[in-house]
Automatic annotation (TrEMBL):
Domain of life: Bacteria
InterPro entries for this protein: YdbS-like_PH (IPR005182)
Alphabetically ordered keywords of this record: Membrane, Transmembrane, Transmembrane helix
Transmembrane portions of the chain: 21-41, 47-69
Statement: the UniProt record of this protein carries the keyword Oxidoreductase: no
Protein name per the record: YdbS-like PH domain-containing protein
PANTHER family: UPF0699 TRANSMEMBRANE PROTEIN YDBS, UPF0699 TRANSMEMBRANE PROTEIN YDBT
YdbS-like PH domain segment(s): 76-148
Length: 161
């Protein structure tokens, strides 16, 4: 079996993941908790139990997604750029490995949302006919270099055919 790719993401991506996950978990929590709280204010005991259960599940989810998962997720995310292909490995429970030959690459791009921008990070996206593959959370200059190198290798691979 081939060794794992050599490069890891920028460590600041763990903070970005925590912020994103906290936002989504809180939105889901509010969508579930508020109706229970409104009905519980009317004196319904079942709604009080539902609100308490929702609160407990939310607290457990916060611990799992904000404390436990980011370091594991970070350690499993790896990538490597060779002259012939891009190799991406990721996943905690279901581990995935993508080897993308540059002859198949149609487009390379960098993306940067507001939270990534706040931390000076960007994501590199490599598109093929089969779909897009993203490497999230790279330092912005590293992301630009990776994007440009991948685009150059894709151009060279097409010229060789």
């Amino acid at each position: 079996m081939r060794e794992l790719p050599a490069h890891q993401l920028d460590p600041k991506v763990k903070i970005v993941w925590r912020i994103n996950d906290a936002i989504w978990l809180t939105l889901v929590f509010l969508c579930v908790f508020v109706p229970f709280a409104v009905v519980a204010a009317g004196g319904e005991q079942v709604a009080v139990v539902g609100a308490v259960v929702t609160l407990v599940v939310y607290a457990l989810a916060l611990v799992l997604w904000l404390v436990v998962l980011p370091p594991i997720r970070f350690s499993r995310w790896r990538y490597e750029l060779s002259d012939d292909y891009l190799d991406i490995a990721r996943g905690i429970v279901w581990r995935k490995r993508f080897v993308i030959p540059f002859i198949r690459v149609q487009n390379t791009d960098t993306r940067q949302g507001p939270i990534l921008r706040m931390f000076g990070l960007a994501s590199v996206t490599v598109a093929t006919a089969a779909g897009e593959h993203e490497i999230p959370g790279l330092a912005f200059d590293v992301a630009e270099q990776l994007r440009d190198r991948a685009a150059e290798l894709a151009r060279l691979a097409r010229e060789d055919v």
